[in-house]
Design goal:
This protein has 27 helices and two strands. By secondary structure, it is mostly helical. Strands 1-2 form a two-stranded antiparallel sheet. The longest helix is centred in the last third of the chain and has 40 residues. It starts with a helix and ends with a helix. 47% of the residues are buried. About 2% of the residues have low confidence.
Length: 624
């Protein structure tokens, strides 16, 4: 009886993870509700916490659990623990723990991604579940490309332009157009490998072929040189492999075994699609500045890949680790780090007043915020994964598909590591990379390369109490995290409604609701701006009510001070307080002038090279 219950709980947990693999790239909401990246992070959090909690309940009922014995999972655990220490030592603990909007750079995202890898690797030890996880991931990725294609060509339809413009033209289902280009490139490589190397039949043969063609067409319109380099290299490798290596292996099959390998022999055909992809990629790579550019301009796609240069990002990183080398300034605080350490040369650009949320690449950005130790643990995860992936091919695979998943996972992990070092991808591409780490170690456990340890905690009375306590507490934490995640997402949705409100009372009401669900300095800062605007509106009347003005000013002052209490390292919060005092500052009100100047000076210590803050100081001095 218990085994049936355990099996049902395990299957439910698996279904949640499999569905996550499929829908994360696809799912989105209208921009006025939550946008794309926020809802994807929300679904990931909810799905992983729910799956892990259900799995823990199953292990509690079963009386034992299995864990993989691998350096990668030790490195993942170290990454989680060190990220937690970094968050707890941060100036803004709340932001470093939970982030401001389900972003990658937060402790909870680190925990969720690590649990996501663990759950995929756990379920992928079963061959049928391994295949399902891979196919769910591939189908979801292919559908994302198709849906994006449909959204783009229908962007002028009134409904699409009004509600879905943020994923039809201004952005995409996976984030920016640059992120989508990387995503399409990865999907193209997947489809090419599946069509030429795996050689599936029926539905998946058609799906891989159509996905490959649509991805290639998308790359033509996107006209991104880096994407073409990857497409050309992958097409060349597949073409050479099919033309030489695989044919050589087939020719060496002994005559008595030809019947046993008859299906494999029959599948060997000239790699026409890899050759066509190679030629098309080479042509558009060489004509990138002429034909490719003309096609891309006719499509009207805008690549808004705005981020600091590599040199400036490196300079900011060096300054940050010189001050906080081991655990950094705290996750989710890159904008504060940028404001504090960016060089004055940035003031000569259009982005002199921009607080970047990430640097040139994720690698340097994480070092700046999390410090050296957590990032070294993450690097260890990548290195162990790659080394283990290459060593995996000394093992005997149960079938062709399992070997194909291992090869594909290794290629995707390698591509993700390169992206990690040279770009700043969004949450979808990050989830994409960690998915294949989980699949790789699922294959490793399946073929016996990674040892799986079974812990029968009920057999030992000395450990059963603590094991059961740990499982129960972990389950409670998991279910509680679902509640907090739901509150955070609801607060973001309500905050977006407040931002879009045209009525003061409605905006104030929605901001108060958002703050009750999940307090954030962003919400209090928005509330401050709301009261400042209302103060100016009332003060511009012929006979303003001084009592009402005083009440509005007090609300603005209190809101600005709460924002500072929540994030004292944020220069904008101090600048907002300074501008609140300027509402009543005059030559006869020296207290307001002094308070405004003091707050502005605090802002300047946190953003010393920003000309706008210096201008604000000058305006305050002019009042005197």
């Amino acid at each position: 009886m218990y085994q049936k219950i355990v099996a049902k709980f395990n299957n439910l947990s698996f279904i949640i993870i499999a569905v996550l693999c499929a829908i994360i790239p696809l799912i989105f909401l209208p921009a006025n509700i939550g946008g794309g990246g926020i809802v994807k992070g929300f679904i990931l959090y909810i799905g992983v916490f729910l799956s892990v909690s259900i799995w823990l309940v199953a292990q509690f009922i079963n009386g034992s659990f299995k864990i993989p014995k691998s350096p990668v999972f030790l490195a993942l655990g170290a990454w989680v623990v060190l990220s937690l220490i970094s968050a707890l030592t941060s100036v803004n603990v709340a932001v470093s723990l939970w982030g401001r909007g389900f972003v990658f750079d937060s402790f909870v995202t680190t925990l969720v991604l690590s649990l996501f890898v663990f759950m995929i690797a756990t379920f992928a030890r079963d061959q049928r579940k391994l295949v399902k996880l891979f196919l769910f991931t591939f189908v979801g990725s292919a559908l994302t490309v198709f849906l994006q294609f449909i959204l783009y060509i229908s962007q002028n339809v009134p409904f699409v332009s009004k509600y879905l413009g943020h994923v039809a033209n201004q952005g995409t289902l996976v984030g920016s157009w640059v992120d989508f280009t990387y995503f399409v490139t990865f999907v193209f490589v997947l489809a090419l490998l599946m069509y030429e190397v795996l050689i599936p039949k029926g539905f998946f043969k058609v799906l891989s072929f159509v996905t490959m063609v649509v991805s290639l067409i998308a790359l033509i319109f996107l006209n991104f040189k880096t994407a073409w380099i990857v497409a050309i290299a992958s097409s060349l490798i597949v073409f050479v492999y099919k033309s030489s290596v695989e044919r050589s292996l087939i020719s060496h099959i002994p005559k008595p075994l030809e019947e046993e390998h008859e299906e494999v022999v029959e599948k060997q055909k000239f790699p026409i699609m890899s050759m066509v992809s190679l030629l098309v990629g080479l042509f558009f790579f060489l004509s990138n500045a002429s034909i490719g550019s003309s096609i891309s301009q006719s499509a009207g796609i805008s690549f808004n890949d705005i981020r600091p240069s590599f040199g400036v990002t490196t300079q900011v990183m060096r300054s940050s680790i010189a001050h906080d080398p081991l655990f950094g300034a705290g996750a989710g605080r890159y904008s504060d780090v940028w404001n504090l350490y960016h060089p004055t040369i940035v003031n000569n650009t259009l982005f002199w007043n921009t607080s970047f949320e990430t640097g040139f690449n994720i690698f340097e950005s994480l070092i700046s915020t999390n410090g050296l130790l957590p990032v070294l643990a993450l690097i260890a995860v990548f290195i162990f994964s790659l080394v283990h992936g290459f060593r995996l091919f000394n093992c005997q695979f149960p079938d062709r598909f399992t070997r194909f998943i291992a090869v594909t996972s290794l290629i995707m992990i390698l591509a993700f590591v390169i992206l990690f070092v040279f770009a700043s991808p969004g949450i979808v591409l990050i989830i994409f990379g960690f998915t294949y780490i989980g699949l790789l170690f699922g294959v490793s456990s399946l073929v016996g390369k990674t040892q799986v340890v079974t812990v029968d905690y009920l057999k030992d009375p000395r450990t059963s109490f603590f094991a059961i306590l740990l499982l129960v507490v972990a389950s409670m934490v998991g279910f509680s995290s679902i509640y907090f995640t739901g509150n955070k997402f609801a607060s973001i949705v309500i905050y977006n409604k407040a931002v879009g409100a045209t009525d003061f009372a409605l905006a104030e009401k929605n901001l108060n609701k958002a703050i009750l669900l999940s307090s954030s300095d962003i919400y209090w800062r928005a509330k401050t701006s709301l009261y400042v605007n209302q103060f100016n509106t009332l003060a511009s009347k012929e006979n303003p009510d001084n009592t009402e003005l005083q009440a509005i000013f007090t609300q603005a002052e209190q809101s600005a001070q709460v924002a500072i209490n929540l994030a004292s390292g944020n220069a904008t919060n101090w600048l907002n307080l300074s501008q609140v005092y300027q509402l009543i500052a005059s030559s006869s009100n020296t207290d307001a002038v002094n308070s405004s100047l003091k707050a502005s000076q605090e802002a300047q210590t946190r953003n010393p090279n920003n000309p706008f803050i210096r201008l604000n100081n000058a305006q305050i001095n002019l009042i005197n």
